Structure formats: structure tokens, C-alpha cells
Amino acid sequence: MLLIDSHVNLHHHSFDEDREAVIARAREVGVGRMITICDKIENFDQVIAIAESHDDIYASVGAHPHYAKDHLDLTAERLIELGSHKRVVGVGETGLDQHYKHSPFEDQVNVFRTHAKAAHALDKTLIIHTREADSAMAQLLEEEAGKGPLRILMHCYTSGAELARRALALGAYISFSGIMTFKNANDVRAIASETPLDRIIVETDCPYLTPIPYRGQRCEPMHVAQVQSAFAKLRGLEEEEASTLLADNFHRLFPTIPRVAS
């Protein structure tokens, strides 16, 4: 059965000692495709090197909203230059985070707009992080989508129903992580229950958000198996049916990634 992890952070320091073993364990359980995510432009070289070294791993380019204050001089032209690499399939993760507020809100908005401009120019998926900024994000998305076709991924969704509704109206896809398995994540499961089946993908966001029953351990791409199983159970799907559905959705959202040979 095919598994796809749409959001991994394989350059993270927690994988420095056993990165290749982590990738091998993912393959052993059936993970056929992964996207490793860029959180800072200074880390792009490491991120893209991982993708270049593995036929089944692709990459993004971008700066997490936590680090927006450090990327005020980042231009769309620079993102386009880096994002033109054949292994890059997405721009981000970018977005708004009003929980930790590591960067001023205005800086986050400005850097988000830079990413959106690059995503438009590259025709590559805009990968979005949102936390406690639903209304502002919905408005930004509507403004950016109004400028032309834009593929949108709401990564690791924990926001409310209204943002989901407005994003879906723009053609967005919503990704769910191991949070779906958490005891107190009823709000997330409610959104995952209501999202159209043709707009859902899954992820781990490893090394974070380890799903039950592995809480307390470092999350790895292999744990996307538990995320996919939780999704299948929530929506009343057979495992094979869920696998096919999620793979189809993933490849519509990331059309340049080849499918796993059957």
C-alpha cells in the first residue's frame, strides 16, 4: 500500500545522526514520495541536497513565518531563482503565526506576499502555515488568488471552519497531520470529517507531532502510516481506498511529481 508524506523536515538537526536510516524506514513501510520543506533560505542548500540525493524526495523553498523578520530583504526574484530547480515543487512554508509571534505580524504579511508572487510566477504550490490568524489569512488568500491561478496547500491544518471554507472556495487542499490522532483534537477531526474527499492530503511534519501510539518519540516519515489510517477510519474508508484517494489528490496538487510505478 502506497503512503505519501507531503511535509517532512529532513534537514532538521534531530535527523543528523541517522537521516539515511530514517528515510530507509519510511520506504520499508511503503512511503513512496516525500516533500522535504525549507524553513529558512539559509537552509535551502541542505534541503535541496537531500532531494537531489533521493529519487523519491522532493523539496520546497521558503521561509517559515517565525523567521519572517530575518527575511525582509527576500525578493520574489530570489525565490523564483531557487524555486526553478527541477526538484522544487512548492513555495513555502510561508504564512501567518499569531501564537508565538516570533516575527511582527506586518513582516509576516509582507514576506507571505513575496512567496505568493513567486508561486504565481513559478506555477508551483504555495505551502501555507497558519496559526491563530484565520481571518487575516483568508483575506490574504482571496487577494492573492484573485491575481491569477494559484495552487494552495493549507499545511498541518488546525484552524477553524471558516478559514477552511474560504480556502476551499479558492480551490485549496487541506493537509492533516498526526494531530488527528490526539485525544483532545476534536476540532481538527471535525474539519477533517467535513473537508471534501478530493481536497485532502496527509503529512507528518516530522520530527514534530508524533501520532498516537508513538507519542513521546521523535516523529519520522514512517509514521504517516498512522496518520493515513486515522484518516481512513474517520471517513469510513478501506485502507487501500484511502491510499488511492490521497495519492490522487497529492499528484493533482503537485503535478510535476511522477507517480510511483505500480
Automatic annotation (TrEMBL):
Per UniProt, what is one GO molecular function of this protein?
Answer: metal ion binding
Q: Which is one Gene Ontology cellular component term of this protein? A: cytosol
Q: Which InterPro entries match?
A: Metal_Hydrolase, TatD-like, TatD/YcfH-like
| Statement: the UniProt record of this protein carries the keyword Transferase | no
Q: Which Gene3D superfamilies match?
A: Metal-dependent hydrolases
Which SUPFAM superfamilies does the protein's record reference? Metallo-dependent hydrolases
Q: Where is the signal peptide?
A: none
Pfam families attached here? TatD_DNase
Keyword Glycosyltransferase found? no
Entry protein name? LuxR family transcriptional regulator
Question: What taxonomic classification does the UniProt entry list for its organism?
Answer: Bacteria, Pseudomonadati, Pseudomonadota, Alphaproteobacteria, Hyphomonadales
Q: Give the protein family.
A: Belongs to the metallo-dependent hydrolases superfamily. TatD-type hydrolase family.
Residue sites binding a divalent metal cation 1 per the record: H7, E93, D205
Residues binding a divalent metal cation 2, per UniProt: H129, H155
Q: Which UniProt keywords apply?
A: Hydrolase, Metal-binding
- Superkingdom of the organism of origin: Bacteria
